[in-house]
Amino acid sequence: MSQVDLSKYVPDFQINIDGVKQNELRDYISHISVNEKIDGDSNQFTIVIADKFDEVSQKFLWLEKFFSKDSPLFFAKEEAGSGERKKNVIEILMGYQGNLKKIITGKLGSISTSGFSNDITNLTLIGYDLAHNFLSKNTLSGNENEIVHIVKADTYSTIAQKVADKVKISSKIDKTKAYRPITIRNNVNLIEFFKEAALIVGFEFFIGRDTLFFINPRNRVDNPMTLKWHYDLQEFIPTINISNLVSQVEVRGNLPYSNKLVVKRATAGQEDLVEPKSSNRLTGSQIAQKLNDKKTEITNKNFYTDEEAADIAKAQLNITSDNLITAAGLIIGNPDLMPGQFINVDGIGKQLSGIYYVTEVTNTIDENGFSTRFNARKNNIIL
Question: Do residues 202 and 267 share a domain?
């Protein structure tokens, strides 16, 4: 009889604190999940622990340990003879027995208890992505003493790379153009800076899997993960959104130090697609053109050249059409699925099948096994 490959059938997870595997804690965990998303907010993990309460001693097993002086979670203490202090960093790996993938590196944010009832007392630990916490607490400026020094020649992409290098995490960064020196507003943290930059150039900024992403979400991708209805795909709930679509974006304003009025437009069908263009494949702006021909005008953007104004118009048209179709899905647990990926959804009809961009993923292991829920979007539909 051939041996069963447990790496594909037995859900498993691992928790490390400051690099030390927490085997004892693992045995008391009834639920563990990690939520990752692209909206710039922090990724989050949730751990539910079945605690024990001794009525004679009036002590909890795990609550007592967490708040003791030897706790690896709360109290940073110096390692004997090393001169270094523990950082209370939590790593969560998920997957299948013998094949685990690190999903998040973070720190504990809160701990709560289910209180006293006839049920087992549960402790719920919630924590947040370590890199995101760092970025939300630090700012940018042209000052050499700042956390990252910005120079005149920097673009949004070179700044993103400098930040990734400073935080010492991996990066996936698409190149942005150098239109002009970038202005840094006072008291804006790194998260806010990159979220604003992403809106200007039509990019996505987010942190995930110990990686900083500043990417064009409409770049063509090779070999997307295929999810087929009734096979990998257990649930798929799409929504077609038409209320906020526009057929044209117009950007207008004066160039600096000039009275020249610049007007640039991005018109219906100019969105970037990751799928082949065809006469029966309509983008969000093309649908808007047929429904109500709604147009929008932007006058509050600063730009230095005609090219920058044209790129801003196209970026805003892309962003508006990105959510033409949004969907929520469920698959058997797959730690390889993460935000920022493209997936090929198959078997749900010609209108809705095709390439989707993943915006949020939640991996969960509990009494029901290992499941992966995701949200995705698509900027075109076949009619």
Answer: no
